[in-house]
Amino acid sequence: MAQTITKMENKREAKEAAPDGPPRGPSVARPRSEDGTWALTVMGIATILAICYFAQETLVVILVSVLIAFILDPVADLFTRLRIPRSGAAALAVLLMLAAIFGLTYLGINKASNLLEELPKHSSEIRQDFAKLTRKAQSLEALNPAPEKGTVKIRQSTNWADLLTRGFGSVWQGVLAASFIPFLVFFMLTWQEHARKATLGLVAPENRRAAYVTMGLISSMIRNFMVGNLVIGLVIGGVSTVIFGVLHIQFFYFAGFFSGFLSLVPYLGVLIALLPPIFLGIGHLSVVKVVWIVATVFTLHIVSINVLYPKIIGGRLRLNPLTVTLALLIWGWLWGAAGLILAIPITAGMKIVFDHVEPLKPFGAWLGGEQPPNGDAH
Fold first, then answer.
1. 29 or 252, which is more confident?
2. Exposed, middle or buried, 184 (CB in 10 Å: 0-12/13-18/19+)?
3. Which of 45, 89, 97, 243 has its CA 20 to 30 A from that of 374?
4. For residue range 311-327, what is the model confidence (pLDDT) as tens digits?
5. Which of 196, 265, 185, 225 has its CA nearest to residue 349?
6. In whole angstroms, what is the distance from residue 233 CA to residue 146 CA?
């Protein structure tokens, strides 16, 4: 009797547990749709780009201040080791920076005024050169067929000033934004320990070690990038000064170092670096000297990009050439000339973060030159 009751209860429980309808085959796990994930990723990237575009003045000032703070940090540490309080050491470092900027500005204005005084002496030669260029341009224009009657020809000229001042609506806005940089640098140098500890406090305890390592790598990368650019600029400037001195260009020492540091600007640098020696040599330059100047600037630029950059700072950045080109294109579009200067450290910092966040490691491998995970799959 007990066995009969137990069988009946087992049958009832099996019937209740069985699903309604006909029996189904073995369940197959459906692949999870990633359309929503990719849509959210695209929306997130678009939002970040929009914020960077509309907040360009603020973000450029903050990032420039960060770079300068990394440059001045060793100076502030030196003053701190001399038993000067951290706030006083930071203030002295900022004051030294401002004194150097004002000194270079005064020297540049002084040399420019001397140059303007020299220009009238060579005005006849300059007019002759412009007359030759005008005749050549007219001869070339005569070779082109005249436009048909009734057609309207529109020429759009490139305003280089707009590119160089991209990110600042006016000179006044640029000066106002730049005036915040010394104060931001001072507070960054003074409160760096507090900022580091507070930032780590925002991270979950199990991820703080990875965050600490990431912050250390980013700091090392930025410092190496700034010091490396300074060293490369000094090397190129020194070589340019020697060559311009041999060519007997007026104020060759001024033209050499300015040309050397302007050459570090990506893409535009190789053209902008030609301006100081050619401008200072007006009235004294022959065709041979102009060829020597162009060859010097182009050669030094190629050597700096292909030899000095990989040797001095290439190991820290670990960015492949495609990433560098895309970064310069995107950040140059967003922030103009400032974006071209900040593109490399921003992208290198992003790669360091991606390399230490597990879901983002494939993106870090894409930005870098190392073999990505599962790279043997074809």
1. 252
2. middle
3. 45
4. 777 666 778 778 888 88
5. 225
6. 48
Query: What angle, rounded to 10 degrees, do the helices at 252-262 and 86-118 form?
Result: 120
Distance (Å, whole) CA 120 – CA 111: 15
Say yes or no to pLDDT of 13 above 60.
Answer: no
**Mean pLDDT lowest among 29-33, 100-104, 168-172, 367-371:** 29-33
140: amino acid identity, one letter = L
Torsion of CA 340, 341, 343, 347, to 10 degrees: 160
Q: Which amino acid is located at 104 in the chain?
A: L
Q: What is the pLDDT of residue 167?
A: 45
CA-wise closest residue to 66 among 183, 184, 168:
184
pLDDT band at residue 377 using 50, 70 and 90 as cut-offs: very low
In angstroms, the CA 330 to CA 320 distance is 16
Rounded distance, CA 308 to CA 228, Å?
9
Distance CA 35, CA 37 (A): 5
Q: Would you say 244 and 258 are in contact if contact means Cβ atoms under 8 Å apart? A: no
DSSP assignment letter at 312: I
Let me know: does 48 contact 56? Beta carbons within 8 Å: no
pLDDT tens digits along 212-268: 888 888 888 888 888 888 888 888 888 988 988 888 887 788 888 888 888 887 777
Q: How many helices (H) and strands (E) does the chain have?
A: 19, 0
104, two tokens = 């270079």
Angle at 54 between CA 50 and CA 59, to 5 degrees: 100
Would you call 340 helix, strand, or coil by DSSP?
helix
- DSSP letter at 121 equals G
Give the whole-angstrom CA distance, residue 66 versus residue 221: 12
Domain ranges of the chain: 55-115+169-202, 206-316, 318-378
**Contact assessment for residue 251 and residue 280, using Cβ atoms and an 8 Å cutoff:** yes
Tokens 């950040």 label which residue? 331
- Of 145 and 138, the structure prediction assigns the larger pLDDT to 138
C-alpha to C-alpha distance for 372 and 341, rounded to whole angstroms: 28
Determine the length of the chain: 378
Measured CA to CA, the distance from residue 41 to residue 137 in angstroms comes to 52
Q: Name the amino acid, one letter, at 133.
A: L
pLDDT at residue 303 above 80? yes
Residue keyed to tokens 């436009």: 147
